[in-house]
Design a protein that fits this description.
Blueprint lengths: L10 H29 L49 E7 L3 E2 L6 E8 L5 E4 L5 E7 L2 E5 H4 L7 E4 L4 E7 L19 E9 L2 E2 L3 E5 L1
Parallel strand pairs: 2-11
Antiparallel strand pairs: 1-3, 3-8, 4-7, 5-6, 5-9, 9-10, 9-11
Length: 209
Amino acid sequence: MVLRPVGPLPPGAYWFRRLFVIVLVLIVVLGAWWFFSRDSPDQDPASGTPAPTVLQSTPSTTAPTKPKPTKKSTPPPSPTVAPCDDQDINVTVKTNAESYPAGQLPTFTLTVENISKTACSRDVGTPALELRVSSGGSKTWSSDDCNPGGDSKQRSLEPGDRYVQSVQWDRGISEVDCPTPQDSAVPGDYQVVARNLEVFSDPVPFVLQ
């Protein structure tokens, strides 16, 4: 029987052999288990638990999308206003002095004002404006004589808006087409009148000494 060893040797010898075989088998089993658990890629050798999986990010090979150009919106055109009628316009002129000593040049300031209650446009270009100096009812000088040309210049004027222009007179006597040389105005009483198209200012007197 297995539990009762039979043979010429003492029973202790047979039990020792059996124990030795059992220990040997356990060592082989444990060694095989340790060997396979160490080489397993899914387990942590220290803990015997599955090792965590590390995910590596792969750079994207897709080219970045270029932003589409934004179309610039075109601003709406500015609203136009109707031309000013003559009755909508007031023209004035001022001198920078009442009397001018010999050698001092007069400066005249012309103003075009919108006196209506609505906005309108007015031509304030060179052909539309004139300053005229006279004495005793006869013309002495006109800004148109030597500057007859030029382009139209439309200016939008809100109610109460003014267009202002200053001109210095060289005290010369002018004629149409601006012939040279020009004689100088003699001392005496003079007056200046401003014009915008067909609208005239009141005359303003001054004295040349």
